[in-house]
Design a protein that fits this description.
Layout lengths: L1 E6 L6 H12 L9 H11 L4 E6 L1 H8 L1 H16 L3 E5 L10 H8 L10 H4 L1 H5 L5 E2 L11 H13 L9 H15 L8 E4 L2 H12 L5 E6 L3 H9 L3 E6 L1 E3 L2 E3 L2 H11 L1 E7 L11 H13 L3 E5 L27 E6 L1 H4 L7 E5 L2 H14 L6 H13 L1 H25 L4 E2 L7 E5 L9 H8 L2 E2 L1 E2 L10 E5 L4 H4 L1
Parallel strand pairs: 1-2, 2-3, 4-16, 6-7, 6-10, 10-11, 11-12
Antiparallel strand pairs: 5-13, 8-9, 12-13, 14-15, 15-18, 17-18
Length: 479
């Protein structure tokens, strides 16, 4: 087997990194030296059998930051898909990163039944059938990072679980993560904690709107958004996204028209978008946020899926769009729960930059919530933000592998089914109407295929015949 050494001491700029790869692997020139082109070159032109040994990776990482990780992800993804190809990385700051097979062997839990899991033990309650394969609710069939388990175990061994305040180290870990991974520099005074993203949205609805006020969403959308509006006796305005062969975009003209005609007070945004899998580009966010600001509409930006971004897409926090032009009209909420599978620990972060909005929120919370924070949630979240990066890198490779398999399989076997491009989240949106009558979707998918999925009409009445699949599981379930 041929062995090639890539030296991080040489690859200290994007140009030198790409040139070293091109020369050592005998790849042709590729336009723009971008990551998409590199992937095409690697899969299209790289000869195997081959072992690549990337030495001094930590030097490349120091010079290029996350870009070096992204190039490494390309090789690791190729390793999972190509026979007789291996990538060995030495002297890397990202110690412990593993292949998809290693990740699955270590972290996949084959049987979660008997643990009060909503996803698995809740099948009978939600689907009236306990023997389905659970690919619905958005949590993972993977253990959380080792550092999380260790931190929780250490506290359990301590044995006291009394009232707790939020330590400075928690704020530091969260702020460091946001700045490193999302270029969002946060001040501690902006941060508030909640027991979950959904409870926080209910709080925002009550703190900033009145009964019968109108609140808008871009549908199809995560159904608890709709519940938060309707449960609190507000008027729900559903502005449908434009669907062009499975690719979704915002109808800005209709969005503004709906806002003006209904005197909308609040917009609840999903970014990345659940369920259609879009990672909004900055230009898209700019148009949305400008319309809201011009019409005095407060933006609640749910960014809980911010870390699950695939391929070469990039998450952009709403609050930093156009250099933070709209930050004083935005409340951001996020959590480590989707990223690191911590949903049961009920810890989320709220970011409110504007002092007046922050004061209104604080005054409202005093009337409903006097409890302390979740001790174990704080410990787990801090450990995940400090030590979970390697785990997350491997997780994303598994999700991409599952997505690629489904996309390829559907193209070959069900070519008229529309699989929306998965830019972000681990939730895949599929239009099956060319094969299944909308009224028959439950009978086919649940009763015959034996799958528990989120059905399209849960997200909007217009989407019967669609399904949402959870890909954060073993490829054996996907296949």
């Amino acid at each position: 087997m041929k062995r090639v050494i890539l030296d991080g001491k040489i690859m200290v700029s994007k140009y030198k990194l790409h040139k070293e790869i091109k020369d050592k692997l005998n790849l042709p020139d590729y336009y723009g030296k971008n990551l998409d082109a590199l992937w095409d070159m690697v899969t299209g032109y790289m000869e195997t059998p081959l072992t690549i040994i990337w030495v001094n990776f930590d030097i490349s990482k120091k010079k290029l930051g996350y870009y070096a990780d992204e190039v490494l992800f390309i090789f690791e993804k190729a390793e999972s898909q190509m026979e007789d190809f291996n990538i060995i990385v030495k002297d890397r700051s990202r110690k412990g990163n593993m292949s998809t097979s290693e990740f699955l062997k270590k972290y996949f839990v084959d049987d979660r039944r008997g643990t009060n899991s909503v996803k698995w033990d809740g099948l009978d309650t939600h689907f009236q059938d306990e023997n389905l394969v659970a690919m619905w609710v958005a949590d993972m069939d993977f253990k959380s990072p080792d550092a999380v388990s260790r931190a929780l175990r250490d506290r359990v061994e301590h044995g006291i679980f009394g009232y707790t305040f939020t330590p400075e180290s928690y704020y530091d870990a969260f702020m460091d993560w946001e700045e490193k991974h999302h270029s969002y520099k946060i001040s501690k005074e902006w941060i508030r904690l909640s027991h979950g993203v959904v409870p926080a949205i209910y709080w925002f609805v009550n703190a900033f709107t009145k009964p019968d006020d109108s609140i808008i969403v871009l549908s199809p959308v995560y159904y608890p958004f709709q519940n938060a509006v309707k449960d609190n006796k507000r008027n729900l305005i559903m502005c449908e996204l434009k669907n062009e062969n499975g690719i979704y975009s915002v109808d800005y003209e209709k969005f503004e028209k709906d806002i003006v005609e209904n005197n909308v007070k609040m917009f609840i945004q999903s970014s990345p978008h659940n369920p259609v899998g879009r990672v909004w580009k900055e230009d898209e966010l700019k148009k949305i946020l400008k319309i809201c600001k011009d019409n005095d509409v407060l933006v609640i930006s749910d960014e809980i899926h911010q870390d699950i971004v695939l391929k070469n897409n990039k998450n952009i926090p709403a609050a930093i769009v156009e250099g933070g032009l709209y930050k004083n009209n935005i409340i951001t909420i996020t959590a480590a729960s989707k990223t690191f599978n911590l949903a049961g620990l009920h810890t989320s972060n709220i970011i409110i930059e504007d002092p007046k909005i922050r004061e209104i929120y604080d005054d409202y919370v005093l009337t409903i919530c006097q409890g302390s924070v979740n001790l174990m949630g704080l410990i787990a979240t801090e450990a995940a933000y400090r030590h979970g990066e390697d785990w997350l890198s491997s997780l994303i490779l598994v999700i991409e592998q599952n997505y690629d398999f489904i996309k390829k399989s559907f193209k070959e076997s069900l070519p008229k089914a529309i699989v929306s491009p998965l830019e972000g989240t681990y939730l895949l949106w599929i239009d099956l109407r060319e094969y299944i009558k909308p009224e028959d979707i439950k009978e086919i998918i649940q009763d015959k295929c034996r799958l528990a999925v989120d059905f399209g009409e849960w997200f909007s009445p217009s989407y019967k015949g669609f399904i949402r699949l959870n890909l954060a599981t073993s490829p054996k379930y996907v296949k």
